[in-house]
Specification:
Largest sheet: 5 strands, antiparallel
Number of strands: 12
Number of helices: 12
CATH superfamily: P-loop containing nucleotide triphosphate hydrolases
Oligomer: single chain
Shape: globular
Structural class: alpha/beta
Distance between the termini: 26 Å
CATH class: Alpha Beta
Strand order of the largest sheet: 1-5-4-7-8
Length: 309
Amino acid sequence: MHVAGRDHADQAASCAQREGDVQPPALVRPAQGVVTWLLAAVPEVRHDQERFVEESVLGLRLTHEVDELMALVSMPALDSIRLSNARLAPTHFSARIAALPLSWRAMLQVEQLTISRGERVLATDLELQVSPGDALVAEGPNGSGKTTLLRTLATLSPPSSGTIYWQGQPITEITEAYRSKMLFLGHNAAIKLDLTPMENLKVYAKLAGAVTEPIAALDHMGIGRYAATRCRHLSAGQLRRVALARLVLTAAPLWILDEPFTALDRQTIDGLSRLLEEHLAEGGSAIITTHQSISLGQARVSRLSLGGG
């Protein structure tokens, strides 16, 4: 990883040369027909949740939490979605990232980025690069711009100036493709409380694609026994584990995680640290904010300090 690096063009060209003609799957925009199909494909979604699914898929910003989840969803081609309705066998996590073509793996560059909240400028001229196997930890006091930076990298907040590149291309030109390879978890769990953990993950799996059974993802996070319990009856820590199960559910090469260890017990923190370690070892990348002291084994970890002024 390089902070203040500008060699994105050379690395992107090298990546393209190695990958030959490998292409990512086609993407389409959500449409009304998808809503009808989705409701039929996920019978666990109760009738009174139809408006939630419909407005979420159509991007109508039903709630702030749904916005954070659904804004990151890119629909694969409908044929691919229908195929994904078949029962998915649990797949070992390391094999999933390793099976991805290199062109699908993370290679994020930021040049001369300025981020603001309202009229207040939080950071200027940020330059960084995150390559496969890299972790970047953003540090700084409350109000220093850590969350704003992550939301900007996740396309949820626009930068004041500067450019963010994904594999050498500005993300403004390939937003849907970029979102399909990135998973963002923010402060909000982005969970519908009237649904169960299983129902929440099944909806997410149908929208974002899945490489593991939802129940396997819940079991991995130690929350499987609550799979059929409505989320409104779960604790903050249990809700956090439901949200973190998305890391196991999909094979997004880039994870953007805002305080992922919040409200977790020591055992779950250790398990999440191992999951991050494995993700990085297999060529994935992560951008994290945390107040916790974490160990990521042999991974390349860089730190970006943001000031409080």
